[in-house]
Amino acid sequence: MAHGEDIAAHFHDYGQLRYAASGALVTTTKVGTWVAPANRITWVPPFYVHSSRSYGETDVRVLPVPAALSEELPPEPSVFVASALLREAYLAMSSEHETAASERGRLLLAVIGAELIRAPQEALRLPEPSDPRLKAVTDLLHADPAISATLAELGHRTGSSERTLSRLFSSELSMSFHQWRTLLRIQRALLELCEGTSVTETAIRLGWANPGSFINAFTDLVGQTPGRYRSTAGAAHG
């Protein structure tokens, strides 16, 4: 997939695993957005409507999942951290067009299943609103995550009060405006770092006051510093 290429909303009657061997893949449903850059595998359950967008030149490897394994995976889309073993088994299964019916395919799929079940999930789902008043605000933030406007200023631009919007963030998305914008920026930071952008430049591009506050927010949510993430992402795509 070319940079910025979209795949329109659709679903499958089977579960699907998606791994970007290069680039990064963003999966969106009506309830949230999941980002899967280097060393992350996205799981989409059967019949779950989803759309996709690529960041960077993206080599997407897609794997249909048999019903038995689907039942052991979460009922909602998820992003898993891929171990070296999971990644290699996945690439072997997808690049050599192995089928689950062949003996080698069964063995590879058993490895993939066992590794997925024990793999840590990435807790970076960005919830998306359905209320049009809230969606008007989140659309502005999606278009420019670095925007420094307050919730009151965004409300003024979209025709809603700060109090109403604050209540909607809490009731519909179960987080504050500040938490949601931070999570959006962290998702975008994953993509920037994956492309090799420096930590300082990423912080500036995405609206942090200084690199230190970005590093703290990133480490809290991702579990490692942006510098370490950038180096492991580069190694995975090297």
Automatic annotation (TrEMBL):
Residues of the HTH araC/xylS-type domain: 135-232
Highest taxon of source: Bacteria
Gene3D superfamilies: Homeodomain-like
Transmembrane segments: none
UniProt key word Membrane: no
Assigned keywords, A-Z: Transcription, Transcription regulation
Name recorded for this polypeptide: Helix-turn-helix transcriptional regulator
Organism name: Streptomyces luomodiensis
